[in-house]
Amino acid sequence: MKIRTVAIRAAAAAVGFALVAAPVAASAVTVTGDQGKSWGARSSAATHRLSTLKSVSSKGVPVSSGSSAGGLGALTSPCASASVAAGPGSVAAATTRVCYRPIPSQYSLVGSSSNPTKSAVALWQQQKTGYWCGPTSVAIASKYFHTNKTQAEVAAKIKTTTAGSDRLQVRNGMRWVAGSRGSQYEAISAPSATELKAIIRADIGGYHIPVVINTHEVKTHYNNHPNRDIGHFVIAVGYRNGGSTVTIVDPAAGLAGGYEKSAKTFDISVSDLSLRADDRGVVG
Fold first, then answer.
1. Does residue 68 sit within a domain?
2. How many CB atoms lie within 10 A of CB 256?
């Protein structure tokens, strides 16, 4: 997100793409932080990652296998305690079973899954510059992973400029703050509503990791954002209704120039959210 102070009669100008806005007061801000770029085609790594997430969303997370020579042995925890779908297969003298931990119908990475929007407030922080929505989303994720990076540390690590951050910079940031779990993250371009739902369910409800979403607001807006062309990074930390409703943490909440009424956290339908990311994508 990029913030620029403007005079009353000045027209807003974006880095990388045009912003359409009426004249505003001197204290107002213009927001963009994704360099104004479409994400383009998916990489082969992103396609493979999406295939994995679709499988996890449908079947559950493969959590363990148990084996014993000559027969089916007791499954190791947490398989033994999970409601599992098992498929036997022989390997040499041992027999194995693959088990899956089911995806819950609602889940929040923070606090109570019954009220993820309220719980997620504990993670929120406001971006310190207008073009730091990417670094701030990553910094918010770092609180969940207990690596606790500051916005400035993330911005320096991923080399954010005044033009904002691109998808690979944010992906690299998520890999960094997630530590040993970071290798899972890929930048997945233009997910459909069905694909985004699978990503949300698998990452949040299955792997228990947050998802960063790059949105592009043009004609319609979410979370009381102003009527401008806005490129923005937000972070998903929970869902309800089987993944049809997503809980978002918004780093822009409270910023001057039209974001004063934006909530720190809010719920949005996965279909609406996918429309905002249809020329951008998600890091999940």
1. yes
2. 12
